[in-house]
Amino acid sequence: MDRSIGEPSIKSPMKKPKKGELRPDQKSKNKEMASDRIFVEHLIRVLKIFRVASERFRLNSSKYEQIIMTICGLVRLRIGALVLPL
Questions:
Q1: How far is it, in rounded angstroms, from Cα 85 to Cα 2?
Q2: Is the dihedral of CA 11, 5, 35, 29 positive or negative?
Q3: Residue, of 6 and 49, whose pLDDT is higher
Q4: Angle at Cα 27 formed by Cα 2 and Cα 30, nearest 5°?
Q5: Where are the alpha helices (DSSP H) in the chain?
């Protein structure tokens, strides 16, 4: 029985069954997903340092996409990744 939660397109960790334990392969997959998630969380933190992504945008809204894409490019340059891993 599949114990994952969420929609099919969303990767979710396996839930532990009631009064049971996860198999070792399920635990390792959960750890792998957690390491991917922490990578993304750290990137979001770096983006929020610029404050454009974390606060209300007060400039002309038509410029928002251009500014946020520039900031994303700066973050990718900073971490040394022009192509992010999937």
A1: 27
A2: negative
A3: 49
A4: 80
A5: 24-49, 64-79
pLDDT tens digits, residue range 24-76?
999 999 999 888 888 888 888 877 887 776 677 777 778 888 888 888 888 88
Query: Tokens for 35?
Result: 């390491």
State whether residue 4 is helix, strand or coil.
Answer: strand
In this structure, what token pair is assigned to residue 63?
């410029």
DSSP 61: G
Residues 6+ apart with CB under 8 A from 28: none
* SS3 of residue 14 by DSSP: strand
Separation CA 47–CA 73 (nearest Å): 10
**Residue whose C-alpha is closest to residue 17's, from 31, 33, 3, 30:** 3
The residue ranges of every structural domain in the chain are: 24-79
Cα–Cα distance, 50 to 62 (Å, whole number):
19
